[in-house]
C-alpha cells in the first residue's frame, strides 16, 4: 500500500498574476465606502477627520497585506490564516479558527455584501422590490421574509455556483468583473465632478452638523468616535487577505 503525504496533494495552480490582483481589488473595492461614510462623519464630526481615518486604516491594511505576502510566499498552500495559525500554534487552534470562519466570519461578510446589493437595487428601483412576503413573531420579536432578502440569497447562490467552476474560468471572471467595478467607480467619481449639476460652494457646508440616525453618543467624537470610524474603514478595506485563501491555486 502506498501512503501519500497530504502535503504532496496540491490544487491546480490556474490563477495568474492578473487573476490574483483582481481577487484582491475585487474584494476591497466594494460597498464599504458607500455604506459607511455617513456613519463615519457622525463618528468623527468632519470630512477631514474621515479622510484621516481612511488613511490610518489604509496604512494598517497595507502592513497586514505585506505581512501576509511574506507568509504566503513561505507557505503557498490554500487556507490563508488557517495555515498560518496551524504552523504557529497547532492544529487545535487552526481547527477552531477554520470553523469560526465558515460559520461566522466569511458567511457574515458575504451576507452583508449580498444585503448591500439588495439595498442598492431596491433604491435604484424606487423601493419596487421591497415587498413583505411573510411575517411571524418569535418570543416577542417580529421576523419578516421580503423579496429583497430573497434577492440577496439568490446573489449568494449564483456566485457560489460560479466559484464551483474551473479555477481558470473563475480567475478570468474575477478579472472581468473587477474591470467593470473599477470602471463604475471611476464613472461615479468623474461624473460627480463633470456631469452633475453641483457647485463647489457645497463644500462650505462640510462642517454643518446634520442628523445622525442610529449612531449613539458613545460612538461620537474623541477616541471612541475615532475607533468606531476605524472599524468602518477597516471593514471597507476588508478583503486584502483573501488571496491567501487560494494560495494553493496561484
Describe this structure in words.
With 250 residues, the chain is mainly alpha-helical. It has eight helices and two strands; from the N terminus they run H-H-H-H-H-E-E-H-H-H. The protein has helices at residues 17-28, 32-44, 47-74, 81-89, 91-124, 147-163, 167-194, 222-237; strands at 132-138, 141-146. Helix 1 packs across helix 7, helix 2 (32-44) runs antiparallel to helix 8 (222-237) and helix 4 (81-89) runs antiparallel to helix 5 (91-124). The chain is globular and about 70 Å long.
List the topology elements.
Blueprint: H1 17-28, H2 32-44, H3 47-74, H4 81-89, H5 91-124, E1 132-138, E2 141-146, H6 147-163, H7 167-194, H8 222-237
Antiparallel strand pairs: 1-2
Question: In brief, what are we looking at here?
Answer:
The protein has 250 residues and is mainly α. It has eight helices and two strands; from the N terminus they run αααααββααα. It has helices at residues 17-28, 32-44, 47-74, 81-89, 91-124, 147-163, 167-194, 222-237, and strands at residues 132-138, 141-146.
Characteristics:
mainly alpha, globular, 8 helices
The number of helical segments is 8
Assess the beta-strand content as a share of residues. 5-15%
Strand order of the largest sheet: 1-2
Which sheet architecture does the biggest sheet show? 2 strands, antiparallel
Class inferred from helices and paired strands: mainly alpha
Residues in helix, % = 55-70%
Gap from first CA to last CA: 32 Å
Overall shape: globular
Rg of Cα set: 21 Å
How confident overall, as mean pLDDT?
A: 84
Spans of at least 5 consecutive residues with low confidence: none
The SSE order reads: HHHHHEEHHH
Number of strands: 2
